[in-house]
Amino acid sequence: MPEVTPSKKNAGISDRKSDHIRINLDQDVRSGLTTGLEHYHFTHHALPELDLEDIEPAVTLFGKQLCVPILISSMTGGTNEAAAINRTLATAAQAMGVAMGVGSQRAAIEHAELASTFQVRPFAPDILLFANLGAIQLNYGLGVEHCQQAVDMIQADALILHLNALQEAVQAEGQTHFAGLLKKIETVCRSLSVPVIAKEVGWGFCEEDVHRLAEAGVAAIDVAGAGGTSWSQVEMHRASNESQARLAAAFVDWGIPTADAICNVRRAAPDMFIIASGGLRTGVDIAKCLALGASLGGMAGPFLKAAAHSLELTIQTIQEVRREIQVCMFATGAGDLEALQGKKLVRD
Ligand SMILES: Cc1cc2nc3c(=O)[nH]c(=O)nc-3n(C[C@H](O)[C@H](O)[C@H](O)COP(=O)(O)O)c2cc1C
Predict the structure, then answer these.
(1) Is any atom of ligand 1 closer than 6 Å to the C-beta of 137?
(2) What is the full per-residue pLDDT of the chain (348 aa) written as tens digits?
(3) If you measure from the C-alpha of residue 106 to the centroid of ligand 1, how many angstroms do you get, rounded to a whole number?
(4) What residues does 158 pair with on adjacent strands?
(5) Closest ligand 1 atom, CA of 77?
(6) Which atom of ligand 1 is the closest one to the Cα of 280?
(7) How many Å apart are CA 276 and CA 204, to the nearest integer?
(8) Which ligand 1 atom sits closest to the C-alpha of 103?
(9) Which positions ≥6 away from 237 have C-beta within 8 Å?
């Protein structure tokens, strides 16, 4: 992959992307909340009547075969460091048969020379791959043609439009003109060649917003609930003055925990395809999300740390999470994912 040299014009976006990676790797950016999954428990089966090694967590989603319903959540692109991370994540995703999203492609829409930092298909020809743009960009000059461009740029199977209102609100350079956005999301859903997924970035969705997004025609919702990486905490570390830092810090306990967000989607749009994410750290977390109604479980922070270390650690991380899901299926007596999804969790 050729090196990209940030021009003066795209230096701002590149600096921000570098800040995000550095802060997520070096600082404690955890939400003050938990995912809520700790309140849910599977019923243990002492007599599973299954052979562990026969249990297959494979599934077909969006027309692509996955060995296990794990998603490497949308993270990065736009710099040389980000390109290397994307390449490592994609190589691991291809080796293990899991899904992956790239980070917001706005930088490459505005500066074509950055497209290569997102283009992972040469490393992952077969994976379920998600393009990514901030939905707010639809209120700042991007339209359907740019969304299609983001999809085509990486040969994606679907487009994620992320909603990060609170993150924008607590940063000095934030784009906060959110009025009228839903209609534009609806237009994209109607016009794009691939399904559109609405995603939060770590604060989850309430029922009212799920209902409105379902009406607008989104094909799936990635809840990205609270309990994991907190973007107000990331912005607190990026703040250029104390007042800005205090504003961001005030939101450490904000958001809808991942478990509640999944239940909100279930109630407001019972047929919606649900991607669970936000603070998922083990295969048991993902398994609980599947039993609550999700079809895919995403993790961001843990995969960033693994990819920054090595390809081997990234693959090992996926293997461990897969094994945890498999053992969870064994100990709950679920021979396949459908059976796992049918398990009733006990709430304490
Ligand atoms: C370094 C980094 C960059 C991210 N960039 C994006 C992005 O561009 N688009 C997006 O939809 N989410 C982005 N996210 C959010 C994640 O996809 C995810 O929703 C969030 O981090 C919560 O998951 P976690 O607790 O497993 O980290 C980013 C996360 C990290 C750690």
Answers:
(1) no
(2) 445 554 544 567 778 889 999 999 999 999 999 999 999 999 999 999 999 999 999 999 999 999 999 999 999 999 999 999 999 999 999 999 999 999 999 999 999 999 999 999 999 999 999 999 999 999 999 999 999 999 999 999 999 999 999 999 999 989 999 999 999 999 999 999 999 999 999 999 999 999 999 999 999 999 999 999 999 999 999 999 999 999 999 999 999 999 999 999 999 999 999 999 999 999 999 999 999 999 999 999 999 999 999 999 999 999 999 999 999 999 999 999 999 999 999 999
(3) 15
(4) 130
(5) 8
(6) 26
(7) 10
(8) 8
(9) 23, 27, 29
